[in-house]
Amino acid sequence: MEDDDPETLDPALQKKHHDMLERLSARHQARKSDSPDTSSSSTLESTSSFLAKFSDAKRSIESRIAESRLVSSSSSATDSSKLKSDLADISLAINNLEKLLAENSYFLPSYEVRSSLKIVSDLKQSLESLSAELIPKKKFSFKSKSTTKKLPETQKPGVVSPPNVAVPVRDSPGLRNKHGETLVKSFKGSSIGEFTLSDLDSCQVQLTGTVNALFLHRLKNCNVYTGPVVGSILIDDVQDCVLVLASHQIRIHSARKSDFYLRVRSRPIIEDSNGVRFAPYCLDYQGIEEDLKTAGLDEETKNWSNVDDFRWLRAVQSPNWSVLPEEERVSSVSISR
């Protein structure tokens, strides 16, 4: 299902996804009625709770768009300032929906991310159409030079702009704020669940053994070699780096001029990235075969070259990434455990 193009999703799959959203929304509402609402700003903990909340917000926005259209069509004396305020509020709600998706995308299945991005894009289109319909109806053309607040423009066809939201740095064990160092860490016998690499410049990082999740933030001119990650790898803001990574899911945000050597079970995802190249995983250290088997990554899926660019939804190849030519690849990297 992760190979589906969101512009040509099978109608049956779309209906199945919609029905699932409705069921999860109903469960979410039932839970809310049984217990007080806790902090809604924190990252949601599961796919089902995200989808339920996303569905609630989507239906609320659709309802507000429909209501604005109905009120305007039923009254010729609709207050222009109120109408603009309502449209601005809807635009803000869509932006918040984008933020919700950005904050939770690291653990969502690729199909859900693609479907949710398409929903956000459709809502933006609906709001843009509504604004075009309603604003010109007002009889204020003699004030043509006055400044009016414009709603955000809808993206060009084929391009979806992911929300410009800074990915939060995890408060987890890790290596931070280093320059020009060789950093070595073994997870053998460790109970560490998540590990973070943050604010590294001109460093070589060697991680052996397995860990549940890995987060990389603000890396420049670094070489990163990691053993298999059982869950997900989330990468944000890397430049001029070489990264050798193995994981079930890999999400890459704001990467520039970097090479990725990957073994990954699902399709790698890039967002707001350019000049990135991909090649197969090439790391070797004593015990790596056992670690790959433990992480469920002992088989090569060749997904390293099946990259999804969420800024590029056209049928043609994204210009933001490419396959690293064989003559430029490193065939094998050996590190000590």
TrEMBL record:
Location of the region described as Disordered in the Swiss-Prot/TrEMBL record: 1-47
Give its localization.
Cytoplasm
**Ranges of Basic and acidic residues composition bias in the record:** 19-35
Q: What is its main location?
A: cytoplasm
Q: Where is the composition biased (Low complexity)?
A: 36-47
Q: Which Pfam families match?
A: TBCC, TBCC_N
Which UniProt keywords are given for this protein, alphabetically ordered?
Acetylation, Chaperone, Cytoplasm
In this chain the C-CAP/cofactor C-like domain maps to 162-312
**Is the Cytoplasm keyword given for this protein?**
yes
Concerning its family, UniProt says: Belongs to the TBCC family.
Q: How does it assemble?
A: Supercomplex made of cofactors A to E. Cofactors A and D function by capturing and stabilizing tubulin in a quasi-native conformation. Cofactor E binds to the cofactor D-tubulin complex; interaction with cofactor C then causes the release of tubulin polypeptides that are committed to the native state.
What is the protein name for this chain? Answer: Tubulin-folding cofactor C
Q: Which organism is it from?
A: Camelina sativa
Q: Which gene encodes it?
A: LOC104720920
